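Lab notebook, bench 4. The sequencing result for the construct came back, and we need a structural model before the next group meeting so we can plan mutations. Quick request posted to the team channel:

Model the 3D structure of this chain.
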Amino acid sequence: MEEHATTRDAKELALTQFHPSAYESNRYAYPVVSRRSHGVSIGVNLSPTKLCNFRCVYCQIRREEKDEPICGRDALRLDLNLLEQEAESLARATISQQLFTHERFAKTPIENRVLRDFAFSGDGEPTLAPQFHEVVEILARVRERLNYDAVKLILITNATTLQTPAIVEALDDFHVANGEIWAKLDAHDQARLQMVNRTSVPYERILDNILFASQRWSVTIQTALFQWRGQEPDPEMLHAYSQRLNDVVRQGGRINGVQLYTVARVPTCHEAVALTNQRLDQCAELVKSLTDLPVEVFYNK
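Done. Here's the predicted structure in token form:
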């Protein structure tokens, strides 16, 4: 019995730890059982070329070390008709429960067998896609055809483009379609940004973009905490990080909550190691006490 239980637990754990941005023969849309969404999230990969302006040490996506060229953007264009078909087909399969006849999803707990959202995610930063606004319009139409008002649109973003005029226009439409921005903020200063996210985008620009987005709409903050070369996040770093969040709120920003998580899948840099559940809980309690914001914790298991 013990062996069977262990096998069952491992299969259920794989639902939330194994999130490939591919599903059968689909090119863009893929389903995951999401801990953050508390149900099924239909991921939409707007970065099949793995275009991203971050190189996070905890990312599981394998990339070339050099940046992708900005020229030649025709190579980045998406087949929008196919994307729409795939997203709607997976949404309907989830609503009808057909998805859960698939071997990979057969062990999904009953309470998670519900469609929660379409997530702009995948193998890179979604807002770098030239057709980002068009995809927003597509998923808004799909959501309308499903007649399923509770379904959200979720943008998982590194917050580097949130004041770009074309993105602002797209996100205005995105919010009309029940959209939520989940913005990454892994650092409290430029040095940690360089260490964790390895980007040329200045830290202050990211922070200013988060302030702008939280004032115009609202944001949920996502932050990865982990050991890096044997060093864990220390109280001084967490105090400075919390102060950054408080500064946003003090200036009229609306932060819905904070999602603290640790390494859950094999990262590109093996020096990035998951925090223990106890340590992550301690970090969450400190952030909660310093900010008075709702804090959710997502462990590596």
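The helical segments are 2-17, 80-95, 132-146, 165-176, 190-196, 203-216, 235-250, 277-291.
Will bring this to the meeting.
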